């Protein structure tokens, strides 16, 4: 069994890719890294190890401080087994939403790769990423299955609307990779914070997170370098349109990835006032949403997507 990374893996470095040769070198490096360092869920995770068994009452499932509910008096007043059950539901929902997002992402990547010309370095990398995202989906679903919980993931109406996402590359590949970052950056941000909080984590959850962070670092890097290379070359009117749409996509995606699941609220009868205090009126929760898209916001500023007009949209979206 290949061991998971022992610490929160460093992010891939950003490089200047103004020239085609520099950009190609980055893509080839990422492709090589996918061969040299990757994991397979049914080979590298000891699912049947007794230490990896999922016990809903295990106190290690209790919510971390990064989730604002974890520090609220209502949550702290619940019995330990209820606190653990709420935390497990939260983790399982995050994984279900993650695999649903990655399902959309894989289909979009394949639509993008379908039209790539012979000799394109992106083709090989996109297939590496698609395979890795397939592995992530399998390990996320396996985790959900082992909880035995009736986890649904995205709300039905949102899931239906999301089916347009795989077709975005046929309209604008640049917009598609903004969408990619909108889903990947918030989860990466939260998982890194969780692993750095010095709490005792369940070994199955920790192993999955470390594998996910390590491989997502390449996926995020590819999207960032693609945008860094392509957006400055876009006609001004298309760049303006992308600048207008990007904060809307990022604001919506961050909230989807970080919002408390409705079924969890109903199952554990979390009072509406508690939800409002924690997630709607809490400045710290609003700051968490802003922080979760911080790196993408900096990238958008760097490549010319933030100007006096679009900055107002970023503010309106709370990011």
From TrEMBL:
It comes from the Bacteria. Keywords: Membrane, Transmembrane, Transmembrane helix. The keyword Transmembrane applies. It holds the Pfam family AurF. The chain crosses the membrane at residues 240-258. Residues 1-20 are annotated as: Disordered. InterPro entries: AurF/CmlI (IPR025859), RNR-like (IPR012348). The keyword Membrane applies. This is Diiron oxygenase. It comes from Nonomuraea angiospora.
